[in-house]
Amino acid sequence: MIPEQPDLWFLPLGGTGEIGMNLNLYGHDGAWLMVDCGVTFPKPGRIAADGTEHHRGEPPVQMADPAFIADRRDRLAGLVITHAHEDHVGAVPYLWPLLQCPIYTSRFTAEILRRKLAEFDLLHRVPIIEVETGQSKQIGPFSVQWLALTHSIPDPNALMIRTAAGNIFHSGDWKLDEQPLVGHGYSPKTFTDLAEEGVNAMVCDSTNATVSGHSVSEAALREGLMQAIRSAEGRVVVSCFGSNIARLHTLASIARETGRYMGLLGRSLINMSGAARAAGLWDSSDQLINPAHLGYLPRNEVLAVATGSQGEPRTALRRLSAGTHPDLELEAGDTVIFSARAIPGNEEAIEALMDRLKALGVRVIAAEDADLPIHASGHPAQEELELMYRWVRPAIAIPVHGEAEHMETHADIAKATGVPRAMVGRNGDLFMIRPVPGIRRQIVEVGRLGWQKEGLVRVE
């Protein structure tokens, strides 16, 4: 299956019909362009989007099977990573030996990627080309431009993919945040200019398509977090996603104002903050203390930020709840704030974690129960999707990054804003954008690979 010069194709191998494990291919003029290469962390007992049930004993890290493109890697022009979340970049160290192509991404994402590659002894083998926002790169027959958008991580980018056959706008993960606090913002003109040029298809994030209204800005969380921390009498532990550097800045500022010292508990938090420093995205006034010192401070001077908001095993918050963390021990009267919402499938693990904390006499504040917002999603709600479609005005809407309900709702929103056609499919479907739009269902066999000590294995 080779795209010819008049062809412009979209072929998802992961991330369409599910949230996570993103791996997308664009085909044109004998070549393929890959966008994102991510992992997922399956939960035993949960039914996946393809109908399979995860069970105990499965590999804990899984990713889309790249067999289709690995068999054609001589036609793979390159891999573009839109941002540094695990479901978009996490599979690169596992799969790059099968692909062996150059990687194009922003500075912060490159910093995260280098740390991952070093763990696999691949750092000096993988060519990484750093790209500035607004810049264009010719990658085979694809001219790719990096466009500024906002998300819950620094330096996310949408892509305008231009070819001789037509143009595609690939949103990546995004929201419209007027005050993202860290990294670049966005300009509506960026996207209205695309409409003037002409966009044949818009491939777009569906995660929150079922959520009405507009997502909350990162800047709007300060008041709620300040209220929760200022009212606490003992130690305060805040659990949030480690990649949210803006949230860390807000917490560091609150620590200064409330007379607390802030330390990070958990490898991913320390890794992300180090990458932010290296990429010039860490405010020098945000001082962190060595986490080993937290246990020696008076209780009312401690503000720890910990991994484990989803109840994951072996994370800092799980160890704190069990009294086994080497740097800090919680006592009755301390406070734990969950500055994150539950990812579907994690509800039972989070509830069990909260119960263990409450049994210690710890005050627990969940994002769902807080009087003021203490968490903001990184994905667009319905009003944001409507705005983006009015700005870009694509000929075709292709919802991705969501389960069936999310993508169907997304398609309805696109059509209601005047998009002539929406195409909804799933991994393995070939979306033909040019010359004649249409879908060929399940044209490519798809599946999952898992990582175990002995290497990659196929997940049945």
Q: Rounded to an integer, what's the Rg over CA atoms? A: 22 Å
Structural class computed from helices and strand pairing: alpha/beta
Low-confidence stretches: none
Lateral strand order in the biggest sheet: 8-7-6-3-2-1-21-22
Number of domains: 2
CATH topology of the largest domain: Metallo-beta-lactamase, Chain A
What is the level-2 CATH architecture name of the largest domain? 4-Layer Sandwich
Kindly report how far apart the N and C termini lie. Answer: 25 Å
List the helices and strands and how they pair.
Layout: E1 8-14, E2 23-28, E3 31-37, E4 39-40, E5 62-64, H1 67-70, E6 76-80, H2 86-89, H3 92-99, E7 103-105, H4 107-119, E8 128-130, E9 136-139, E10 142-148, E11 157-162, E12 167-170, H5 188-197, E13 201-205, H6 222-230, E14 236-239, H7 245-258, E15 261-265, H8 267-278, E16 302-306, H9 316-322, E17 335-338, H10 347-359, E18 363-366, H11 382-392, E19 396-400, H12 404-416, E20 421-422, E21 430-434, E22 438-440, E23 448-452, E24 455-459
Parallel strand pairs: 3-6, 6-7, 7-8, 12-13, 13-19, 14-16, 14-17, 15-16, 17-18, 19-20
Antiparallel strand pairs: 1-2, 1-21, 2-3, 4-5, 5-23, 9-10, 10-11, 11-12, 21-22, 23-24
Helix pairs in contact: 4-8, 5-11, 6-7, 9-10, 11-12
